[in-house]
Structures are given as structure tokens and as C-alpha cells.
């Protein structure tokens, strides 16, 4: 069993925490449904222009787990042009 984690650091076009919450909830909900991953906002909850999102997947195959998170990152990049990915890291736990 292989467990992989993706940490995405995002720069958001939001002026308030309410706008940020809308963007983050949209990304998390759609990723949960499309890629069947566990996800949450894991850091910088009090800053309205940045977010750190964590995604986790489990698979019996190492390449499938890593590939899922790589596709997820590309999908976020393509699906939200107003959201900039400033950093990302995939780690095996």
C-alpha cells in the first residue's frame, strides 16, 4: 500500500476571507469528487490572498497514486486561471 500527499501553495485573487473560502471550497469539493482524494486547507487559514491545500491518496500501485496527484495538480492549474500555484510538493508517506 502506498500513501502519497500533495501540498499546493496557492496565490488567490481574493480580497476577503469570504471570497477565499468560496474559491478554496470549490477547488476542494471538485477535487474530492473528480479524483477521489482526501483534501483540506492545511495552513495559512487567516490570510485572504494565499492558501495551502493538502491532498492524500492511497493505492496498491506507486505509479497510480503519484499519477493521480500529478493529474490533480494539472487540473487545478487548467481549471482556475485566476489561481496561481506558487509551490507544490508530492511526497510518499
Automatic annotation (TrEMBL):
Q: Which domain of life is it from?
A: Bacteria
Any transmembrane segments, and where?
none
Q: Which InterPro entries match?
A: DUF503, TT1725-like_sf
* Cross-referenced SUPFAM superfamilies: Hypothetical protein TT1725
Per its UniProt record, what PANTHER family does this chain match? Answer: DUF503 DOMAIN-CONTAINING PROTEIN, HYPOTHETICAL CYTOSOLIC PROTEIN
Q: What name does UniProt use for this protein?
A: YlxP-like protein
Amino acid at each position: 500500500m502506498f500513501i502519497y500527499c500533495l501540498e499546493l501553495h496557492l496565490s488567490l485573487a481574493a480580497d476577503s476571507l469570504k471570497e477565499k473560502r468560496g474559491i478554496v471550497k470549490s477547488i476542494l469539493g471538485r477535487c474530492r469528487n473528480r479524483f477521489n482524494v482526501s483534501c483540506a486547507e492545511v495552513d495559512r487559514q487567516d490570510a485572504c490572498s494565499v492558501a495551502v491545500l493538502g491532498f492524500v491518496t492511497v493505492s496498491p500501485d506507486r505509479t497510480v497514486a503519484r499519477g493521480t496527484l500529478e493529474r490533480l495538480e494539472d487540473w487545478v492549474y487548467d481549471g482556475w486561471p485566476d489561481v496561481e500555484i506558487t509551490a507544490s510538493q508530492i511526497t510518499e508517506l
